[in-house]
Q: What sequence folds into this?
């Protein structure tokens, strides 16, 4: 099975792929649409009972807020996405928050 990429960076554009219910959605975000990135720690609940510390990436744009959690994409991909977004934020001077 091929690896699923949830975040692709192409020149000055970020392409997000995510599921909205059962429907796959693709969002193309240009650098002028992105307002900030945030890396947040939170407590995820498995089966709404067992608390598990987790992390999420929140991308705030003028089109809305996009969120990716560690559980959705897996640990190794999640760290790679964080590094890619940090490099992108430095290159295009986009704010980044670490909570």
A:
């Amino acid at each position: 099975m091929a690896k699923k990429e949830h975040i692709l960076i192409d020149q000055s554009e970020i392409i997000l792929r995510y599921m909205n219910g059962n429907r796959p959605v693709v969002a193309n975000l240009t650098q002028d649409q992105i307002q900030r990135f945030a890396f947040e720690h939170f407590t995820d609940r498995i089966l709404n009972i067992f608390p598990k510390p987790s992390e999420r990436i929140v991308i705030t744009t003028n089109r809305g807020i996009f969120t990716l959690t560690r559980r959705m994409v897996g640990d190794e991909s999640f760290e790679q996405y964080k590094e890619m977004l940090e490099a992108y934020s430095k290159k295009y001077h986009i704010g980044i928050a670490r909570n």
Remarks:
- Helices lie at 70-73, 75-92.
- The first strand starts at residue 7 and ends at 10.
